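A note from the maintainers: we've had questions about how concatenated examples are separated. There is no special marker in the raw files; a new sequence line simply starts the next protein. For clarity in this README we add a label.
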Amino acid sequence: MILMGLLEKAGQMQNEEEVKPAKKSKPKPVKAAKPAKKARAKRSKKKKSNDLDDIDVTPKVAKTLPDEYVLSKKPARFARSLVDFIVTFGWTVPVVALLGFGSANTDITYFLMGGALLSIFNLVAMPFMTNRTVGNYASLTQYINHKGNPPVFIHQTLKAMTVLYIGIGLFMILSAKVGTSDADSVRFGIGLAILAIPLTDWIIAKVRHETKQGLWDSIFFAYMVSHTRSEDAESTGFFGKLESSGDWLKDKGWLGDESSED
């Protein structure tokens, strides 16, 4: 009886388990999908306008001798230097002679004034008015730059002062009394600095012997070329006479042969 009661009770418990509904599993909430971000349309980059694009850039001109000109020959260069030296500094010869052999009462004021005016005329007035010196007229030469134009007139003024640089430099050095108790080092230094100008001119002329340019020629990009006299040029007047003197020297062959390389 006890056994039957236990079996009956076990059967009831089994039936209750079958009748009991199964627990519903709670559905997991589904997260709403986030809407995809709309891709922003890329703005077209505007090209920045460069103000430099509007500027017209002038191509650099080669600073060399223009093709239509020919460098002057060595005899013509020597003739130019000789004539310019005589005109510019020739007046110093009688002045030195008067100072050395004249009496103590000799007045050289007029010689100095006349000589100074002659030097200024050849070194300043002539280049300013005609772009040439008396020596250029006599040797049928002229100076032009890399553009084919005459350089600024101060170029010839500085170039023709080589003798003056040497004279002043030597005077300053000799008057400095170097080696004595009264030596003036400042005066000596100034003299050396002045002498350095013609020395530099000579060195540059040796280095640039192909273009025959010295210190001042290199600074001003100047070349000494042969001057061809135009047929309609005047043969009268002061400048006409100077030009005629160059023709005379050329006919004598003193300005060199045009067919020669030098």
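[label: protein 2]
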Amino acid sequence: MRATLFYIFLLIYCVGFSQSDKVQVEIDTTNIRIGEQFQYKILVNETENVIIPKLENLKGLEVVDSLKIEKINNKIIQKYILTGFDSGAFYIPQQQIFIKNQAYLTDSLLINVTTIAIDTTKAKKFDIKGIKTEGYQYNDFEQYFWWVVALLILIGALLYYFIIRKKKEIKEKTIVPLLPPYEEAIEKLQALDKKLLWQNNETKKYYSELTNIIRGYIERELKLPALEITTDELMDVLNDFNNIKSIETNKETIDKLKKLLQESDLVKFAKSKPMDYQIEQDRKDAKSIIDNLKPKKEAIEDEVE
């Protein structure tokens, strides 16, 4: 019961899911034939701190293309080209849009996909053909069939003896279970160290992989689209979460993360080249960030319950 009340208040306070005039969706048609394309448009009446996640859960429909986001008259417009290859009625489900760290839901839309009708009255007609003689039957080749079978068995036995028998040890593919977010991040950091990227003048690639490891950890551990948003957007969300005590961290860790992400942006986009000691310190800071950025224990315990 406590877990249920917690989720209800958390939903009302932090997420604020709602349908409002902040977000709208449009389609240019509600009826298509199999394989035809149509446009799906998301309109957001805001331009600052807006996050539009990937279009997902389209049962019966497929995304052909995701067009570049447009900003027109203080609005953000995201357009998609969709299609369907199965007949039936399919819903484009509600999409979750984040505006200034508050979530809004769009309306769901119904699309009817129909098959292509065939006009049998216009089908091409052919003349009646004469009766063909009966083709060869199995009995005509039965004796040859058994000779072929015997020959194939002999060839198979020889192949087994000379090839397969000598290579009997087969490496079975093992399914590696997904590691917990923390363990995965630590393993990736250790693997990055072994590549010696920055030591071989590949500093840009090093910082790109380093920050992707941290963003990937945040995305899995805190359930945020950290790999898809900018540095400023990510820091705004984490600061808000820290202020309302929904994550376990401290200001020092937040500041380290901001500094590291900004340093990485400078290396990747401004061709900055940090000193060796700075790179080594950034590597230590990455480990410290992962160690000290966790979801709140109460939320984890309620989720387990």
